[in-house]
Specification:
Elements: H1 8-16, H2 23-35, H3 40-53, H4 57-68, E1 84-88, H5 96-105, E2 111-115, H6 125-129, H7 141-151, E3 153-157, H8 164-176, H9 182-195, E4 200-207, H10 216-232, E5 236-243, E6 251-253, H11 254-265, H12 271-287, H13 294-306, H14 309-320, E7 339-344, E8 349-354, H15 356-365, E9 382-385, E10 392-393, E11 398-404, H16 410-419, E12 420-423, E13 433-437
Parallel strand pairs: 1-4, 2-3, 4-5
Antiparallel strand pairs: 5-13, 6-9, 7-11, 8-10, 8-12, 9-11
Helix pairs in contact: 1-3, 2-4, 2-8, 3-8, 4-9, 4-10, 5-11, 5-12, 5-14, 9-10, 12-13, 15-16
């Protein structure tokens, strides 16, 4: 049966009835949907069939590769060594890339990072880096490769026409009730990472209130699906499941998160952020073949923090991309907010719950993030938490500090108060790393 004889309606019916699609059928769908010969209504019917009937491991890998091949693929062969990329499924106060880039690079592993601009509570990694005066992400492919070869780390903006099939399908899933399908999420995330050209991929799948996947069980399913896809298509892949029932670290905002990243690279960062970076970093060093075990990899990372090398690489990285490296020694050079407003505790007890999403929204109300693509970000504003789940609090203790460029922050204050709940009895802090998935 040639391509001409293939019909989308037959493919929809085959999947609707729970049968396994061939590689050619999956390709036919992705190519046709990307070039416009298969209409939205058939694509949404197909997505719903997948939502109910699921896909086998092979179908998932084929779907991912068909999406990779729908557009440009970045060629990183000019960069020496095994290139490792990290992907986080998002979260609040997720400063990990800022720390991991220089940290992992300091052990000699090349980190060639492509990053988007965030639509969310705070900007994406690029917006955060642009809080450093002069820092720019516009590098040519040659400059990008040379910089990674020289200092082992570079971050550029996403360029080119990567995974157009995913962009179309993603927009469609959003309005057809088919977002939360494991094969569709897994292929969406993995197609972008594979098209970006890395040899190995480390995934941080968040779980909990502030995450896309609310239960550990669902997060494990998604992580395993992505690890299987990556390994099936020749990209060494590992994942961890980490807690997003409260924000990560203390800083939520752009300049504030850069400052927190610097402190973490100095070895004085928040406990949870440090632990997450060491866990993810250990996987990155291991999949890059620079350590025989996760334990050995972790020792290397702890060493480059202790001897100052990680911080030094951060300085070189900032300088290489036009930024002022002096911010590392003097974070007051970062954009500063005009007002610092304290949020005192109204009752004593233990912090029982911090609703990550809502605290993220509070930072966004100050101007730290984008509600729409056109929104301007204020890089100076945001929140610093002073208490995390399980901490003891007395009346008047500072729960958080609001960094604002306007005096009226009533709405933000109310949002913080209504989303940090107190408990009269002691509360156990949640485990940060739920699970590590290697195969």
């Amino acid at each position: 049966m040639g391509y001409n004889a293939m019909r989308m309606v037959d493919i929809i019916e085959k999947k609707r009835d729970g049968h396994e699609l061939t590689t050619e059928e999956i390709r036919f769908f992705i190519e046709g949907y990307t070039n416009g010969s298969i209409p939205d209504y058939q694509a949404s019917s197909f997505a719903m069939a997948v939502y109910f009937q699921d896909m086998t491991d092979r179908e998932r890998a084929d779907l991912t590769m068909a999406m990779v091949e729908s557009g440009d693929q970045i060629d990183l062969s000019a960069i020496e060594g095994i290139k490792v990329d990290k992907h986080s499924t998002g979260g609040v106060g997720d400063t990990t890339t800022l720390v991991l880039g220089p940290l992992v690079a300091a052990t000699g592993v090349p980190v060639a990072k492509m990053s988007g601009r965030g639509l969310g509570h705070t900007g994406g990694t690029i917006d955060k880096l642009e809080a450093i005066e002069g820092f720019h992400v516009e590098l040519t492919t040659e400059q990008f490769a040379k910089q990674v070869n020289d200092i082992k780390v570079a971050v550029i903006g996403q360029s080119g026409n990567l995974t157009p099939a995913d962009k179309k399908l993603y927009a469609l899933r959003d309005v057809t009730g088919t977002v939360s399908s494991i094969p569709l999420i897994a292929s969406s995330i993995m197609s972008k990472k594979i098209a970006a050209g890395s040899d190995a991929i480390v995934l941080d799948v968040k779980t909990g209130d502030g995450a896309f996947m609310k239960t550990v069980e669902d997060s494990v399913k998604l992580a395993k699906a992505m690890v299987k896809i990556g390994n099936a298509v020749g990209r060494k892949t590992m994942a961890i499941i980490s807690d997003m029932n409260q924000p990560l670290g203390f800083a939520i905002g752009n300049a504030l998160e850069v400052k927190e990243a610097i402190e973490t690279l100095q070895g004085n960062g928040p406990e949870d952020l440090t632990e997450l970076c060491l866990t993810l970093g250990s996987q990155m060093v291991t999949v890059a073949g620079h350590a025989d075990s996760l334990e050995e990899a972790r020792k290397q990372l702890e060493e480059v923090i202790a001897n100052g090398k990680a911080l030094d690489v951060f300085k070189q990285f900032i300088e290489a991309q036009g930024g002022n490296p002096a911010v590392v020694d003097d974070p007051t050079l970062l954009p500063q907010a005009a007002y610092k407003i304290d949020v005192p505790a109204k009752e004593a007890g233990y912090v029982g719950h911090i609703v990550a999403d809502a605290i993220g929204t509070a930072a966004m109300l100050l101007g730290a993030g984008r509600a729409t693509k056109e929104s301007e970000i204020d890089l100076a504003v945001g929140l610093m938490l002073h208490k995390k789940v399980g901490d003891r609090v007395e009346v008047g203790d500072s729960l958080a500090t609001i960094y604002a460029n306007r005096e009226d922050v009533e709405e933000v204050l109310n949002k913080i108060y209504s989303n940090i709940t107190m408990s009269a009895t002691p509360v156990e802090a949640p485990a940060l790393i739920e699970e590590i998935i290697t195969e």
